[in-house]
Amino acid sequence: MRKLVSMSIASVAVAGGVLAGAGVAFAGTPVITHDGGFQVGAAGLAPGTYESTGPTTLGAPCTWTRLSLTNGQPTVVEYMQTNDPSAVTLKATDSTFVTYNCGVWTPEEIAVPATPVEPAPVETVTEEEDASGSLDLGSMDLGSVDFGSVGS
Question: What UniProt keywords are attached to this protein's entry (predicted)?
Fold first, then answer.
């Protein structure tokens, strides 16, 4: 039993490490909190749309670049400079995302369609079913109940 528990804990730890390394991002959770170049794909950021909080230094623009590899060489796919909050869509074909002065990047909120709620089935009890029960008053301990005042 102890060996089984140890193996289960190890499996969970490995799975957690694989998911963390795969760049699994959750909506609203910051994934980039500083300037730099970040790998996209299995060992980095998950493809998807990310939003920034905007420039962190007054007067300096937020600058970001999406890169892909063409014949082993980095190629600019998209480049942006803005003084406002920004959004970028990283694709599975991207190799690197470079950001400077853009603040915190978080995955775009995912719109989850409203799921119609079906009402729970209502059980109906007919008079015939309702009358089938019985109550044995002879086995009840009535203690100090005064039945003399009932109905007076």
Answer: Signal
What residue type is assigned to position 132 of the chain? Answer: S
**Torsion angle, alpha carbons of 115, 119, 120, 121, to 10:** -130
Q: What is the pLDDT along the chain (152 residues), one digit of tens a residue?
A: 444 333 333 332 333 333 333 344 445 556 889 999 999 988 789 999 999 999 999 999 999 999 999 999 999 999 999 999 999 999 999 999 999 999 999 998 654 444 555 566 666 665 555 555 555 556 555 555 555 555 55
Number of separate helices (H) and strands (E) present in the chain: 2, 7
From the centroid of its chain, how far is CA 2? 33
SS (H, E, C) 73-132: EEEEEEEEEECCCCEEEECCCCCEEEEECCCCEEECCCCCCCCCCCCCCCCCCCHHHHCC
Closest CA to 106 of 43, 29, 47: 29
